[in-house]
Design goal:
GO terms for molecular function: thiolester hydrolase activity. By secondary structure, the chain is α+β, with helices and mostly antiparallel strands. It has 3 helices and 7 strands.
Length: 142
């Protein structure tokens, strides 16, 4: 069994591993995604050693990066538009421990020209880990 197979062995059904081979996503991953029946998505990761702080909780920087990649993705999901982050606000509500499965998603709440406002949530099971909002500028189509 390959190391990729071992890493993916206990991933919840319906999630597929994102195929990021370079850049930030490849460095902090592996990351996963599944589509939802309403046409949306959920992104996720299992907290690994490389994503923790000294207390063996998911590092706040990892949660911020995950929020950015997840909240902004609502813009490109389904319409293949590139975007950049203009503003990102995240409120940390609870921790996520080593080995826990973290999920998140976002929802567009406003559009003003090429600027999208998004609300998002990150959770573990029923426990909210973080909430936030962001403003993202849409660029050219991919």
């Amino acid at each position: 069994m390959s190391s990729d197979s071992l890493a993916d062995a206990d991933i919840p059904e319906g999630f597929r591993r994102l195929k990021w081979r370079s850049g930030y996503g490849a460095t902090v991953g592996p990351l996963y995604e599944r589509d939802t029946p309403d046409g949306g998505f959920v992104r996720a990761f299992k907290v690994g050693e490389h994503q923790t702080n000294m207390l063996k909780n998911c590092h706040g920087g990892m949660l911020m990066g995950f929020a950015d990649m997840t909240f902004g993705h609502v813009i490109s999901h389904g319409n293949r538009r590139n975007w950049i982050t203009v503003r990102l606000l995240v409120d940390f509500i609870a921790g996520a421990s080593l080995g826990e499965w973290v999920e998140g998603t976002g929802k567009v709440t406003g559009i003003d020209g090429s600027f999208y406002t998004v609300q998002g949530r990150i959770w573990v099971g029923e426990r909210t880990v973080a909430t936030g909002s962001g403003v993202f500028k849409v660029l050219e189509q991919r």
